[in-house]
Automatic annotation (TrEMBL):
Enzyme nomenclature, EC number: 2.1.1.77
Name of the molecule in the record: Protein-L-isoaspartate O-methyltransferase
Keyword Transmembrane helix: no
Keyword Methyltransferase: yes
Cellular component terms (Gene Ontology): cytoplasm
Protein family according to the UniProt entry: Belongs to the methyltransferase superfamily. L-isoaspartyl/D-aspartyl protein methyltransferase family.
Highest taxon of the lineage: Eukaryota
PANTHER family reported for this sequence: PROTEIN-L-ISOASPARTATE O-METHYLTRANSFERASE, PROTEIN-L-ISOASPARTATE O-METHYLTRANSFERASE 1
Keywords: Methyltransferase, S-adenosyl-L-methionine, Transferase
Catalytic activity: [protein]-L-isoaspartate + S-adenosyl-L-methionine = [protein]-L-isoaspartate alpha-methyl ester + S-adenosyl-L-homocysteine
GO terms of molecular function: protein-L-isoaspartate (D-aspartate) O-methyltransferase activity
Xref: InterPro entries: PCMT (IPR000682), SAM-dependent_MTases_sf (IPR029063)
């Protein structure tokens, strides 16, 4: 719907479930939404300040949304129909189209991140038959998700300075392996990219995904590795890490991850239970810690394998 507001007024409007898919789109990004996974059990209502500067051709809409039982519930929406038409053609062209959309909305600014996301085709890292290039999180089974492309782009940009050739990177909750592959290409064969995931089936699947991608040589050479393990404990073998990414929300930042962060390194981690913030944690050269909040997010919880499989 459209809303006509005076400058400084606040909109709080509830959206019906049939309109929920709008919030998965890049238009939602333009208003500051950062979204990883479907909400559970209840509705979450946001109050959002509407700004006078609008992205091109994007209508104003409500900033409230509820859980959708199927996280892929967006196929009938006209906005996504237009986007899927725009992203038609080969997988490479659709991947590039996705990136161009994220650039258009100011999500991707870095030339290096653009290069990496163009090189690693997202279509190789999602379940077969799902719309890989739509800016939406999607279920990958086992009560896990792959993040929306704008979240991957944001995390890559936040960590870019710590993903230089020769550096070490850790991806906690590596899921389908997409972001681990991006890390590996950024740190190169002289560096080390490690993915940790506690669902063995996902590790096996992510390995196959990487083998089909541009990061395959790094997996074969050993500078990229994917492991079954409790990501809350990190992966000490290749610590300390210049960059740590956590793909699920922790109630508190795990001390093991802080300990494995190199002085001068950075960790990006969602923190919170129902209300969550994407935290940027820098370990200073003297070992002290600086923390700032980047944005509000909604991720699945960082928990044990058993609790995740139970969906608790």
């Amino acid at each position: 719907m459209r809303a006509k507001l005076k400058d400084g007024e606040v909109a709080r409007v509830e959206i019906m479930p049939s309109s929920i898919s709008l919030l998965h789109s890049v238009s939602a990004i333009a208003y500051g939404f950062r979204y990883r996974a479907p909400l559970k059990h209840t509705c979450l209502f946001y109050t959002h300040q509407l700004h006078t500067l609008q992205p091109p051709n994007v209508p104003l809409f409500s900033s409230s949304f509820c859980r959708v039982p199927n996280p892929n519930f967006f196929t009938g929406n006209s906005l996504f129909s237009r986007m899927e038409h725009f992203l038609s053609g080969s997988g490479i062209n659709r991947n590039k189209g996705m990136i161009e959309q994220l650039q258009r909305y100011g999500v991707i600014k870095s030339k290096k991140v653009t290069e990496i996301m163009e090189t690693v085709d997202r279509g190789l890292f999602v379940p077969e038959g799902t719309p890989a290039y739509i800016d939406s999180p999607m279920s990958i089974g086992y009560n896990a998700t792959i993040s929306a492309p704008h979240m991957h782009a944001m995390c890559l940009e936040l960590l870019e300075d710590r993903l230089q050739p020769g550096m070490h990177a850790l991806d906690v909750g590596s899921g389908t392996g997409y972001l681990t592959a991006c890390f590996a290409l950024m740190v190169g064969p002289q560096g080390r990219a490690v993915g940790v995931e506690h669902i063995p089936e996902l590790v096996a699947w992510s390995t196959k995904n990487v083998e089909r991608s541009a990061a395959a040589p790094l997996l074969k050479e050993g500078s990229l590795s994917l492991h079954v393990g409790d990501g809350r404990k990190g992966w000490p073998e290749h610590a300390p890490y210049d960059a740590i990414h956590v793909g699920a929300a922790a109630a508190d930042v795990p001390q093991d991850l802080i300990d494995q962060l190199k002085p001068g390194g950075r960790m990006v981690i969602p923190v919170g239970t129902f209300f969550q913030d994407l935290k940027v944690i820098d370990k200073n050269l003297d070992g002290s810690i600086s923390v700032r909040s980047e944005t509000s997010v909604r991720y699945v919880p960082l928990t044990s394998r058993e609790a995740q499989l139970k969906g608790t």
